[in-house]
Amino acid sequence: MKEGGRMKTRNAEIVFTSRMSDPGESNRQQKTTTVVRGKVGESGSSLYLVFSAKIADVGQADYTIRVSGSEALILRKGALPMRQPLMVGQTIAGTYDTEYGRMETKAAAETIDSITDSSGDSGSVRIVYALSIQGQSVGRMTLDYHYRASL
């Protein structure tokens, strides 16, 4: 899907649901669902979702989600920048920037799945991982992205 060295992208509606289970209290969960306009693209074996969303009480953030097999990368620029590589079955270091400075994250991915319909116009991505920041468990994150390309 590359044209002239650039990835071909299509406009898409993306429904992004984030769930965080508190450590030790799996019945307590924070959930947010956001519907945004963004882009979906493919390059090699990787699927990319690119969108902007507002983080409550903080500001606007630009996200890039890359998924390829059992690996993923979550990038957030703008409000609360973050870079978290993920690989199923491994704990991988990342970074999370706050008003207090840069903090180290560690994420142990349990699930990284992506499904695209036969037309390639819609699909979903699910990423589930345990997250710790500065050595402190923050909980289990479940990120669901459902997208439909615009015509």
Protein architecture, described:
The chain is mainly β. It has a single domain (2-149), classed as Lipocalin. It is built from no helices and twelve strands. A ten-stranded antiparallel β-barrel has the order 3-4-5-6-7-8-9-10-11-12. A hairpin with a 5-residue loop joins strand 10 and strand 11 (122-133). The chain is globular, with a radius of gyration of 15 Å.
- Helical content (DSSP H or I, runs of 4+): under 10%
Query: How many domains is the backbone divided into?
Result: 1
The count of β-strands is 12
The CATH H-level homologous superfamily: Calycin beta-barrel core domain
What general outline do the C-alpha atoms trace?
A: globular
Distance between the termini: 17 Å
- CATH T-level fold name: Lipocalin
Mean pLDDT: 90
Pairing-aware structural class of the strands and helices? mainly beta
Characterize the largest beta sheet: strand count, sense, and whether it forms a barrel.
10 strands, antiparallel, barrel
Order of helices and strands: EEEEEEEEEEEE
From the 3D coordinates, which CATH architecture would you assign?
Beta Barrel
Give the helices and strands, then pairings.
Blueprint (H helix, E strand, L loop, with lengths): L1 E2 L2 E2 L1 E14 L2 E19 L2 E10 L3 E10 L2 E8 L3 E6 L3 E8 L2 E16 L5 E12 L2 E14 L2
Antiparallel strand pairs: 1-2, 3-4, 3-12, 4-5, 5-6, 6-7, 7-8, 8-9, 9-10, 10-11, 11-12
Question: Brief overview, please?
Answer:
0% of the residues lie in helices and 80% in strands.
